[in-house]
Amino acid sequence: MANVELKQVVKRYGSVEVVHGVDLEIRDNEFIVLVGPSGCGKSTVLRMVAGLEAISGGEVLIGDRVVNQESPKDRNVAMVFQNYALYPHMSVRENMGFSLKMRGSGKDEIAAKVNETARILELEPYLERKPSELSGGQRQRVAMGRAMVRKPDVFLFDEPLSNLDAQLRTQMRMELRKMHMRLATTTIYVTHDQIEAMTLADRIVILKDGYIQQVGSPIEVFEKPVNVFVAQFIGNPPMNILKGTYRVADGRRIVQVGKSAFPVTEGKAESLKDGTPVLVGIRPDAIKMGDRTEKLPPEWLCSGEVVVSEILGGQSHLEIVIDGENELIAEVEGRVLAHPGETVPIGFEFDRMVLFDPETTNAIV
Ligand SMILES: Nc1ncnc2c1ncn2[C@@H]1O[C@H](COP(=O)(O)OP(=O)(O)O)[C@@H](O)[C@H]1O
Ligand SMILES: [Mg+2]
């Protein structure tokens, strides 16, 4: 059990700085997901916590102890890598017990811990097999088991599901979530996959170019992104971003997008002046179409022309052009068969609209 803290953590490779003063407080038992595009510094941050990479500046604390100078084995953290790094010539049992053996634990103790972990991970039937005799998902569980037997203070995962096919990934995601509930161990999990971040995290940390963009619960970063980057990185399809102008007319605050007027919720963007250009962010699932728009006031509606529609099973995605210029992706419930060129009435949940400054791309609160 441990909290983890990063204070102004910097990483330089030679003269190139790749992580720029990262501050982050991770609570005991929390599941934190670091997410961002490839090359943004996720693995580097994780490896500095693990002790696999020297820290160029700032401090890393584990359980209130500064660990900058501690070797990886003294930090009591366990890391699971994307490629599992299992020993091919050892059985599952030997792989899982290896770190305990290296620490000089006795045979009985190792057997007890390996058996207990194998039971939790449902690996008991495979203990005598070699990694080559296992499926990808089973190997993945062995890699986790190897990390778990030591009862570390912190689990560190670096894209552990990237090598699995889509179905197995979904299944392992659920397993990880259940395992975390059972073990309640502080976890830092790195991925470039925003769905993994949304489904696994207590809090998500979004990184870009070695800078933290936003830290928040999955719902916070989804509904209240701090900038256009977060708005489009989180969520699939990404948030729609339209060009508009903020207007105040007859005491009504609206955003004009093409010929359409979207009302601005009270308390939002109060500081804006009439005529200010804005970017308007609307989540695809905040767009309603067809008879579902009936309960919305008529002035909120506009019509759009369907470019293409896709049915995903229970939901449909529609690409729609409004006023002949602004393209939107709508995610609507049910199977909506719309023909290209067809005009459909659409409405929005305007209280979920987010406005951004076109110059800084930061959200206007
Ligand atoms: N050993 C290294 N030497 C020089 N640059 C490195 C090294 N490792 C990583 N980098 C650079 O640091 C940045 C962050 O890398 P990394 O943390 O691996 O990104 P991510 O895990 O988010 O894909 C990248 O620009 C990468 O090229
Ligand atoms: Mg990486």
Order of helices and strands: EEEHEEEHHHEHEHEEHHEEEEEEEEEE
**Arrangement of strands in the largest sheet:** 6-7-8-3-9-10
Structural Rg: 25 Å
Strand content: 25-35%
Any idea of the CATH topology of the largest domain? Rossmann fold
Pfam families: ABC_tran (PF00005), OB_MalK (PF17912)
GO molecular function, one term: ATP binding
Protein name: sn-glycerol-3-phosphate ABC transporter ATP-binding protein UgpC
GO cellular component, one term: ATP-binding cassette (ABC) transporter complex, substrate-binding subunit-containing
Description:
- With 365 residues, the protein is of the alpha+beta class.
- It has helices at residues 42-50, 92-102, 107-120, 136-148, 166-183, 194-200, 218-223, 228-233, and strands at residues 4-13, 16-26, 31-35, 57-62, 65-66, 77-80, 154-158, 186-191, 203-208, 211-216, 240-249, 252-257, 260-263, 277-282, 287-289, 302-311, 315-322, 326-333, 343-348, 354-356.
- The strands form 4 sheets. The protein has a 6-stranded mixed beta sheet, sandwiched between helices. It has a 5-stranded antiparallel beta sheet with strand order 13-12-11-14-20.
- The mean pLDDT is 91.
- The structure holds adenosine-5'-diphosphate (ADP) and magnesium ion.
- Adenosine-5'-diphosphate binds at residues 13, 18, 36, 38-44.
- It comes from Pseudodesulfovibrio cashew.
- One of its GO terms (cellular component) is ATP-binding cassette (ABC) transporter complex, substrate-binding subunit-containing.
- InterPro entries: AAA+_ATPase, ABC_transporter-like_ATP-bd, ABC_transporter-like_CS, ABC_transpr_MalK-like, ABC_transpr_MalK/UgpC-like, Mo/tungstate-bd_C_term_dom, NA-bd_OB-fold, OB_MalK-like.
- Keywords: ATP-binding, Nucleotide-binding, Transport.
